[in-house]
Amino acid sequence: MRYCRWVRAWIAWAPLPVWTLAFVSGCAGPPTPVESFERGPLPYHVCVFVDRERLGFAAAEKPDETSDGTAGGNGGAELPATEPEKVRCTLDEATLAAQVARDLSTGSGAVSLARVIEAASRSDAMRIAQSANADLLVAIGFETRPEYQDPSWGFGWGSLEIASWLFGGIPAWFVPSLDFTTLSRLKVELVDLRRGTPGREHSEPETAWKQDFDAPIQNVSLWDRSYPFDRPLDYLATIIVPPFAMQPGDPARLSAELTGDLSADLNGQLAGSLREHLIESERTAPLSVAFLSPDPADELAEETSIRLRVAVASRGPGRVAAFDIHRFASGAEKFRWILPQKELQEVFAQTASLEVAPNDYVIFDVPADIPIVPGENIIKVRVLRDDGFVVTRTMVYRAQVYSAEDRTKA
Question: 109 and 398 in contact (C-beta within 8 Å)?
Fold first, then answer.
């Protein structure tokens, strides 16, 4: 929604004491396992897949191409010149999936890694995701109205717009006083690909979590629906009438603005809810892994290797039978390290003599240098128990990429 941007703008100009407090509280040392989950990102590699077959997809449709190459058919993001342009959602499947993956991994930091995959069915998507060593499959569907019309005047924002118009003039251009009913819904189903359950090794993973997210209304300002250099008369007219009278404005600009707002709204809801679900599931799972250090938020400078500190929780009668680490990086050979059985027993069997963190986590400093290359380094930790439970968790560490000129100066 529009008011979120106002909040973000206030945060950007927050007084120095606010940022000082945040800085001091963030320098308290290595986190506990619970704190590592709450600070983010969570240790998951996610594949995002638009499941039209099970969840559906109804948004912008590209126009059909006639034999002479001109646009035709029954509508879409670009309409024939003989029809007036309508205000509508311009999302297609590829754009939606890319935006969801981006917002999950970079926007909110809900997960450490998110990638888009394309498949004809859910089973094909799971096979592709498993071959890509993903931990989770996020299947999504989307539905919205075919056209957005008949906006309403919001009393709260509308009152602010009129006050701004009477006493300020120009600020009224940026007040989101018009409400468009979008009635959009994002459907999500989550499949855990890497949490094995005894007796079900060869069965298809079940849906671990599902939820629908709604974006019923989006509000826009004059600036959102009309660009001053394209429609200068809309802005000149505000000398006489309030900006809300200038509607709908430019349909193409308004369509793009409404699409971007509802997409950000839905993706923000998804990221927050998915994060809460994953944190809660880690607290009760038979096996759980937390990355304590290095902090994935810190970009590695000149390191060629790192030492991991992880925390492992094994809940239930089973004992940890295997612990291994894998490092994947573009242009580099795969790295694999396996904790020897003798050391494995010392670490996980004699838990009474070890430092035990909250919620039954055992803290473990990995006694191996994990090579790091410039760019993105994907590190996976796999833990297997003797009763058949297995879990794989993923964290991405990024190292700075230096140019030849930088290396020469150094």
Answer: no
State residue 12's pLDDT score. Answer: 37
Yes or no: say if 163 and 210 are a contact pair by the CB < 8 Å rule.
no
Chain-centroid distance of CA 246 in Å reads: 36
The torsion of the CA quartet 183, 96, 196, 329, rounded to 10 degrees, works out to -160
Amino acid making up residue 329: A
Contact 300, 398 (CB under 8 A): yes
**The pLDDT of residue 27:** 44
Q: Which CATH architecture has domain 285-409?
A: Sandwich (2.60)
Rounded to whole angstroms, the Cα distance separating 228 from 234 reads 8
CA-based torsion, 90, 93, 95, 99: positive or negative: positive
- Which segments of the chain have a pLDDT < 70? 1-30, 60-84, 107-108, 195-203, 302, 349-359, 401-410
pLDDT at 19: 27
Over the chain, what HEC string results?
Answer: CHHHHHHHHHHHCCCHHHHHHHHHHCCCCCCCHHHHHHHCCEEEEEEEEECCCCCCEECCCCCEECCCCCEECCCCCCCCCCCCCCCCCCCCHHHHHHHHHHHHHHHCCCEEEEEECCCCCHHHHHHHHHHCCCCEEEEEEEECCCCCCCCEECHHHHHHHHHHHHHCCHHHHHCCCEEEEEEEEEEEEEEECCCECCCCCCCCCCEEEEEEEEEEEEEECHHHHCCCCCCHHHHHHHHCCCHHHCCCCCHHHHHHHHHHHHHHHHHHHHHHHHHHHHHHHHHHCCEEEEEEECCCCCCECCCCEECCEEEEEECCCCCEEEEEEEEEECCCCCEEEECCHHHHHHHHCCHHHCCEEHHHEEEEECCCCEECCCEEEEEEEEEEECCCCEEEEEEEEEECCCCHHHHHHC
pLDDT at residue 175, rounded to an integer: 92
Phi, psi angle pair for 366, to nearest 5°: -65, 120
For the chain, the domains span 44-283, 285-409
Query: Measured between alpha carbons, how far is 32 from 140 in angstroms, rounded to an integer?
Result: 33
- Rounded to the nearest 5°, which phi and psi values hold at 72? -155, -165
* pTM for the whole structure: 0.80
pLDDT at res. 176: 92
Count of beta carbons in the 10 Å neighbourhood of residue 300: 17
